[in-house]
Structures are given as C-alpha cells and as structure tokens.
Design brief:
mainly beta, globular, binds zinc ion, DUF6487 domain-containing protein, DUF6487
Length: about 80
C-alpha cells in the first residue's frame, strides 16, 4: 500500500495484543467493543493466539494505517 501522505510504499506489519483490538470513540476499561455503540472490532480475540491486525507503516511520515474494509485487517479472520 502507498502512503497517502507521501506516496511511498508502506512497510506492512502487525499490531498484536493479548486482548481484542477495537476502535472506540472514547477510552473504556471494561466490556468488549460490542458493548460500546459505534465501536469497530479490528481483530476478534482468539483464546490461543490473542488478536492481531495488519498495519501499514510509513516511517518517514510517522503514520500507521489499518485498512479494516470487510474485516480484512484481522489476521485471525484470514483462516
Ligand atoms: Zn509517508
């Protein structure tokens, strides 16, 4: 994927966690994302492997982009 800021090729990697990875409109300490209105689950939790999303990094612009279209960023969902 090309960086939308500078146009150079981005470096693909992962962001992983022992917990679910989700976007929410504000910080919360309890409850999975599905209990928070408007949340976006980027990677469902796998009890064996945790969760991980594909993330593209541009070191020059210091940006990290997660393309979550159709859940394609979720490594657990690829299998
Ligand atoms: Zn860039």
């Amino acid at each position: 994927m090309k960086c939308p800021y500078c146009g150079e090729e981005m470096e693909q990697g992962v962001i992983q966690s022992p917990h679910e990875i989700a976007w929410k409109n504000k910080r919360s300490y309890i409850g999975r994302a599905k209990f928070h209105k408007g949340s976006i689950v980027l990677s469902k939790l796998s009890m064996l492997e945790g969760s991980a999303v594909i993330a593209n990094c541009c070191r020059k612009c210091e940006k990290i982009i997660i393309d979550y279209k159709d859940g394609s960023c979720d490594i657990n969902q690829e299998r």
